[in-house]
Amino acid sequence: MFVDTAKIFVRSGDGGDGAVSFRREKYVPLGGPDGGDGGKGGDVVLIVDNNMTTLLDFAYKKKYASEKGGNGSGSKCFGKNGEDLYIKVPLGTVIRDVSSNKIMADLSHPGDKCLIAKGGKGGRGNVRFTTSVRQAPDFAEPGMPGEERYISLELKVLADVGLVGFPNVGKSTLLSVVTKATPKIANYHFTTLSPNLGVVNVPGMQSFVMADIPGIIEGAAEGIGLGTEFLRHIERTRVLIHVVDISGIEGRNPFEDFVKINEELKKYDVKLWDRPQIIAANKSDMLYDDKLFESFKNKVGKLGYNKVFKISAATKKGIKELMQEAAKMLASIPVTDIEINEEDRFIPEEKKFTYSIRKEENVYIVEGSFVDRLLDSVNINDPDELRYFYKVLKNKGVIKELMDSGIKDGDIVRLNDFEFDYVM
């Protein structure tokens, strides 16, 4: 079963909490704080596996999470870092962030990997908060939360040459003749329902990968037939072999078919339409008049297509020359990665804790992720910790912003469930 799209949820590990601990030994009366830091949470990384050919695995498992970092402990012991989670994907997978629809990575080379979700940083233990005036801090930081997001995976087949053309023109037969691929072949339309790949060996020249791309018909760029479902697989090809049925035994006009397919390529991506094309006039063994081939060749020549080969995949006539021309063209066309525009590239945002201030009567309400984390870090009933709490509010700019908002002595400041009277 060929699956080339998937949507999954990934979550990196939370950082471990810092420890609150004090050294207590028999002959050490003033041991002091010795709480260690929490460990870092595990990352989520996508990595290329050359043995995978589809995204079928992701049809059954949709959620992936890495390990949480261990909590710190006494004796300044750090918590264990969470293990990174490596998710294997096929070569040629494009990863997008679902919420922004921006591209996170294009894994188009063996061994490529991409950090999808970064693990949370471990919280600091109480030994990190000692100062000349605060020698026994009774608080520590919680670990930073990990990242979570939905990502979409899109497989774009890696092939040097793509076979395009209307259904039933002989693309699968051509692929089976020049490679060891065994695509389904039958005398009806849409026999091929997924891309088939094979390696073409040309004596004395570099071998190359060729793909039979199914389902491209008139209106494909708008979703007709198999629509855009497989047009994406042509994007990585360097040369297109455009197969037409020159015999016309089905009552179709090969030149009109050629123009229609190129229009669909142009609508989908003008770069595909501009890609080098070799025209394979197939089923020539059933051609009753050679003038039809010459007329077709003249018409496409006027459009700027001069590489036209009269072939028969069934009898292998002209196949050798066609493959030699494809290999020759590939030798002069460098392999390039898919271009990602800056506006389409995903740039991860640095995790920041934020807050907002609003007023209800004489109550100033401070809320947000900054508040949640600060209240998780300290015991507001302890005088030393309360002084640290106020210092953080001042350093963060909360106190200044409250003053700018017009707060007066006696007004109430509320942070979640904690309230205090403001005093200048």
Please describe the topology of this protein.
Elements: E1 5-11, E2 44-48, E3 63-65, E4 85-89, E5 93-97, E6 102-107, E7 113-117, E8 148-155, E9 161-164, H1 171-178, E10 196-200, E11 208-212, E12 239-245, H2 254-268, H3 270-273, E13 277-282, H4 290-302, E14 308-310, H5 319-331, E15 356-360, E16 363-367, H6 369-377, H7 383-396, H8 398-404, E17 412-415, E18 418-421
Parallel strand pairs: 1-3, 2-4, 9-11, 9-12, 12-13, 13-14, 16-17
Antiparallel strand pairs: 1-8, 2-7, 5-6, 5-8, 10-11, 15-16, 17-18
Task: Describe what you observe in this structure.
GTP binds at residues 165-172, 190-194, 212-215, 282-285, 312-314. Belongs to the TRAFAC class OBG-HflX-like GTPase superfamily. OBG GTPase family. The chain is of the alpha/beta class and 424 residues long. The chain folds into three domains: 5-155, GTP1/OBG domain (Spo0b-associated Gtp-binding Protein, Chain: A); 161-331, Rossmann fold (3-Layer(aba) Sandwich); 356-421, 2-Layer Sandwich (GMP Synthetase, Chain A, domain 3), CATH 3.30.300. Helices cover 20% and strands 22% of the residues. The chain has eight helices and 18 strands. It has helices spanning 171-178, 254-268, 270-273, 290-302, 319-331, 369-377, 383-396, 398-404, and strands spanning 5-11, 44-48, 63-65, 85-89, 93-97, 102-107, 113-117, 148-155, 161-164, 196-200, 208-212, 239-245, 277-282, 308-310, 356-360, 363-367, 412-415, 418-421. It has a six-stranded mixed β-sheet with strand order 10-11-9-12-13-14, with helices on both faces. A five-stranded mixed β-sheet has the order 3-1-8-5-6, with no helix packed on it. A four-stranded mixed β-sheet has the order 15-16-17-18. A hairpin with a 4-residue loop joins strand 5 and strand 6 (102-107). The longest helix is centred in the middle third of the chain and has 15 residues, at 254-268.
